[in-house]
Amino acid sequence: MIGGTAPENATAEIRRLAPSHLLIVDAAEMGEDPGSVRLIDPEEVGGASFSTHSLPMSVLAGYLRGELGCRVTLLGIEPKSLAFGGAVSPEVEAAIGETVAALEEALRV
Question: What are phi and psi for residue 64, nearest 5 degrees?
Fold first, then answer.
């Protein structure tokens, strides 16, 4: 599911699915090279900026943990630019493809 600039709007759908675990993947300014991927502790989001959202990711993650009792993990991908309406850079496209492949492999049953 895609949350866009207001991922809090997806909470009803997330609640309907009643997950035990939730992985939120988002652009995060972490001071690393574009396309860098890192797991970010929701309690320590201050070290990364998810600035295009109206609600801080730490607040959203805390809400989902509290309401659903699920484990929430944030996966940040360093953007080349956070300019509104900007195209995804080749570095980020490659990171997305590699991340999707790794997740598919890890979740293969």
Answer: -65, -40
Segment holding 76, helix H or strand E: strand 71-77
> What are the CA-CA distances from residue 10 to residues 3, 7, 48, 75 (Å)?
6, 6, 22, 17
The whole-angstrom separation of Cα 40 and Cα 79 is 15
State the residue for tokens 């759908």.
13
- The tens place of each residue's pLDDT in the chain, 109 residues long, gives 666 666 777 888 999 999 999 998 888 888 999 999 999 887 776 544 455 555 677 888 888 899 899 999 989 999 998 777 778 899 999 999 999 999 889 888 6
* Assigned CATH for 14-107: 3.40.50.1450
